[in-house]
Amino acid sequence: MKVFQIILVLLLLVNCATNPIPQGITSPPQNEISLAEVMQTPDLFEGASIRWGGRVLKSYQEGAFWRVELMAYPLEENGRPTMELPSEGRFIAEFSEQKSWNRNDYVTIYGVVEGDVEYSLAQGKSQRLPRVRVVDHHKWFKQERSPGFWPHWLDIYWHSGGSGVIFHY
Predict the structure, then answer these.
(1) Given this model, what pLDDT does residue 169 score?
(2) Is the dihedral of CA 139, 142, 145, 150 positive or negative?
(3) What 8-state DSSP symbol labels residue 78?
(4) Do the Cβ atoms of 52 and 72 come closer than 8 Å?
């Protein structure tokens, strides 16, 4: 047990040293704006700074930009998304450089609202999603697991701000 604890502490220290959290992620904008507010009236909030985060649903190239579709979740004090609470909806994060993140990666972004985009859903339906030009971001790393060691529905996340367990239903 002692060896496991030492290994875990070393992994945490390496992760913190190699993956610093940007200031825009750890500190919310002065006038924090919710995703729900922007979804109702995106034109009213164009140019506003936001700090949102969540789970990556997919990433793809659209013209000269890379877009990442995120399922938004409330953020903890340090900016880390917390999956223990219900989702706040979806939004599109737009990057000028390639971001090929995997589905279910956890990310927090700091950026500027640039309006909304038409997004195609299943069965021919569509929805307008807020579009954010990303200024800074942080990917929250999860502990890699050996096949068969952790159940498929369990992920363990850690960072300098704390750790947590996520259950996938």
Answers:
(1) 41
(2) negative
(3) T
(4) yes
Tokens of 79: 């900016």
Cα 34 → chain centroid: 15
Q: How confident is the model at residue 66 (pLDDT cuts 50, 70, 90)?
A: very high
10 — phi, psi (to 5°)? -60, -40
Q: Beta-carbon neighbour count of residue 114 at 10 Å? A: 17
- Residue 148 has a pLDDT of 44
Contacts of 7 (CB under 8 A, 6+ apart): none
The answer to whether the beta carbons of residues 112 and 49 sit under 8 Å apart is yes
Contact 89, 28 (CB under 8 A): no
Tokens of 70: 């995120």
* Tens digits of residue pLDDT in 103-152: 999 999 999 999 999 988 778 888 899 999 999 999 998 643 334 444 54
